[in-house]
Amino acid sequence: MNQCKVMKDGYLEKRSNGLLQLWKKKRCVLSEEGLRLYDCKGESSKEMRFELMTTLDCVEYKRGLVYFTIVMNGGKEIDFRCQQEGTAWNAEIALALVRFKNRVAVQTGRNRHLSHLGSCGEGDVEL
């Protein structure tokens, strides 16, 4: 994800997995490949790649905050919240996820088409 175009850079709060489920502020960088979360000191990061995400849902608006959930392939749900101003993070992440899945689907379709052409011998026609 290091070489990818940065689409959004800013702060989100992520709900912790612990017993108290506290909200922790994270610096987040959204790219064409996924979301990278940095701890508040910027010393360590966690990568959430779109290829491992299923969807973004459970959007709720309360007291100037947007709450949303990213669902990973295994069913794990990760809760976030952010300020409700400008284009919200949930919309940016959802659009980037759809773009990624569309790009993968097009590439998969191309690969199937090319492999079909190769197996039928159509790719061997000389002009």
Summarize the structure.
It is found in: Cytoplasm. Residues 6-100 form the PH domain. By secondary structure, this protein is α+β, with helices and mostly antiparallel strands.
What does this 3D model show about the protein?
A seven-stranded antiparallel β-sheet has the order 4-3-2-1-7-6-5, with helices on one face. The mean pLDDT is 86. 13% of the residues are buried. It is elongated, with a radius of gyration of 19 Å. With 127 residues, it is an alpha+beta fold. Helix content is 25%, strand content 43%. This is PH domain-containing protein. InterPro entries: PH-like_dom_sf, PH_domain, PHLA1/2/3. Keywords: Cytoplasm. One of its GO terms (biological process) is positive regulation of apoptotic process. GO terms for molecular function: phosphatidylinositol phosphate binding.
Layout of SSEs?
Layout: E1 6-15, E2 23-31, E3 34-38, E4 45-49, E5 53-62, E6 65-72, E7 77-83, H1 89-120
Main location: cytoplasm
Subcellular location: Cytoplasm
GO molecular function: phosphatidylinositol phosphate binding
